């Protein structure tokens, strides 16, 4: 089977509704988020033969992965290093208040400079994603994580720590798809390349459910 990796953002969560920075204290999905997760699960079951399902331990991602697992017949495997950047003292506080109090992270200004830095997060997540990509031999690997997971994958494959002026929109339950490239014999590349075949795809959601 072709090697495919799906990087999926969790469904609409309570932390999104309150605009708060949460990891350990995450309260999971809203009713809308659960509906989105069910729509996502139906789509994946219809369009992909998911062979491996991995999730962030953060509740909003784990609940999304559970819905997917029920549809594709897999139990999600929790990967702790796929969690969001650790909030530290910012846990449970509003993003606006944290930006005012701590100022911007110098390497990723949209985030406040508290808890785990963006550089530290990328070091952790890049190592994890590299291992997952290298260990994925065939079939479809589905990774349920966060918007940061998608950004981490893109910076890893592009080879840059930041995307600078490029903002990447990945809404709740959006699907970003990567397909392993088979090089021609005459192409002098020794590392695996990946084709970005979908970015932030939410075509499984109704107009009402398209919340960012």
From TrEMBL:
This protein's superkingdom?
Bacteria
| Gene3D superfamilies, sorted | Phosphoglycerate mutase-like (3.40.50.1240)
Q: Name one matching Pfam family.
A: His_Phos_1
- Which InterPro entries does the annotation name? His_Pase_superF_clade-1 (IPR013078), His_PPase_superfam (IPR029033), Phosphatase_SH3-domain (IPR051710)
Stored PANTHER family: UBIQUITIN-ASSOCIATED AND SH3 DOMAIN-CONTAINING BA-RELATED
Q: What is this protein called?
A: Probable phosphoglycerate mutase
